[in-house]
Amino acid sequence: MDAFDFTGRVVIVTGGTKGIGAEIARRFAAAGASVVVCGRNEPASLPPGIRFVAADVRDPSQIDSLFEAAGPVDVVINNAGGSPTVDAATASPRLHAKVIELNLIAPLHVAQRANQTMQEQGEGGSIIMIGSVSGVRPSPGTAAYGAAKAGLHHLATSLAVEWAPKVRLNTVVVGLAQTPESSEHYGGKLAAVAQTVPMGRLAVPSDVADACLFLASPAASYISGSTLTLHGGGEWPSFLNAAR
Q: Are 73 and 117 in contact (CB under 8 A)?
């Protein structure tokens, strides 16, 4: 039996229409899964095996509609998230609240709805949170986002205890990554930023997709409440550069 054959399995990827989420969706579809992606805007086209359902994951009623459209689901990837770069001292309370809602509260609501379905199924299921190194080290410029991701990492460990043994929850903590939006985020200096990573490159979407495929597979059937840190060895401490 191929542990990475997802034929007959249903997978939901939130925010799965672009960037890392789109690659996760493609990889599961290539492994035989029936994949449902959601977002607020429908993409111009989707690869075979992937279906789009319009849903804003900040709205619990739209989450319900997403799961009703998907049917019995085996794997859920909580990928939707993000934040603009903003000074924490001047950002509005409304912006902070919306960032935390998208990156922490919405994944909780998606996970609740997934658990409801998975507990009723014979084989249970797998929920994977897409976290960030912003939640494990200082996140200047995106403080609310970093705080929300830190909460998301902890949330996964708590739910893994509450919902076992039928449902497994794990987190992929993504480090500095190369996506269509990252060039602007890193000031157009991708090569220089990549040199701060011990592996000598930024993470790419397929790295994250591979991690999700593993954590959702039977090969990881005893892995729950765990964090897979995907950061290429971390980042060079700035004090070392200063010392040089």
A: yes
Torsion sign, CA atoms 186, 141, 103, 212: positive
- Condensed to tens digits (0 to 9), the pLDDT of residues 47-79 reads 889 999 999 999 999 999 999 999 999 999 999
Helices H / strands E in the chain, number of each: 9, 7
Q: What is the dihedral of CA 62, 128, 148, 86, to 10 degrees?
A: -80
pLDDT for res 183: 61
Q: Does 189 or 127 have the greater pLDDT score?
A: 127
Ramachandran angles phi, psi of 38, nearest 5°: -135, 160
145 tagged catalytic:
yes
Residue with the two structure tokens 């990252």: 182
At 19, the amino acid letter reads: G
Catalytic residue among 145, 159, 171, 231: 145
Rounded to whole angstroms, the Cα distance separating 39 from 16 reads: 7
